[in-house]
Amino acid sequence: MGLCHRSDYRIPTDVLAGLQQLTYLELVGVKVKGPDPEAPALQPLQALTALADLRLALREPAGIDSSLLAGMEDLTRLDLCNSAELEPSALASIPQLQHLQLMQCSLTGGAAGVAQLLFQLPHLSQVTHLDLSRSLTAVLEGNPPASAFSALTASSKLQHLDLKGCKVPAAAWQHVFPAAGRQLPHLTTLNISAVSQPQGGAAAAPEGLVSCCPGLRSLDMQCLQVSAELLLQLQRLSGLRTLFMSPTDAGEGLEAVGQVTGLQELFLYAPMTPFKLLLHFTQLRQLTSLSFVGKIETSSYFPGLNF
Fold this sequence. Notes:
- The protein has 307 residues and is an alpha/beta fold.
- The chain is built from eight helices and 17 strands.
- The strands form three sheets. The protein has a twelve-stranded parallel sheet with strand order 1-3-5-7-9-11-12-13-14-15-16-17. Strands 6-8-10 form a three-stranded parallel sheet. A two-stranded parallel sheet has the order 2-4.
- The relative contact order is 0.07.
């Protein structure tokens, strides 16, 4: 069952609670109201114990706590977007979860909430899809400790990881993507674009990425500091088909990207790139899409022309 509604009409959640055989519920762009103005509007949904798939993108803030999810033991997919506020301990009620998306959500407890989320993630051993984009934003340097972030890749079944726009301490990458000792063989899609450090400034891309994730097919690391050494290592990813990145002004390492011969889609985001550096990509025979956002310096090849 899916509902998408943009008017000011509020859907009474006690009516939904009567659908006790419901296995799929999606509420997008709607407003809801509960039977008791003093109680959380979503509280009646706790009666939907047969739910396997719950997706909420409400127009107004809504709290998701342990009491709401306690009876949903069969839940395998949970999507919360925009206005949701999650009590991380609520995830302990749904150990069978395979798909978890917290997109631009808030966590109760600030930095303590982030720590609680990282504590819960290793217990979700069935997770294949984890999207925390713009939700891990209450991080302070050292709180939680960098080692706690290993929870982001604790599931050995992980196939999709999205950390876009999160704040991650620089020291955390060695625990999330260790260069030796542990691999994520099933991880094929990774988005770490626009990840920043707690104290501000763009994060550096993890150096252990290639060793840890040999099966990557899609990698997005736009707006990250990427070393020439990491770009050289990308040649070892024989299955890499899609790459989004931001080269340095001098374009260090782009020659190495031109050797990732399996690439089919390449997206570059850079304020200024010399035209000659783009010539490295002429060897990408399988490339079907090349996108560039920024300014290309062409004067040395076409005097008087820049675009």
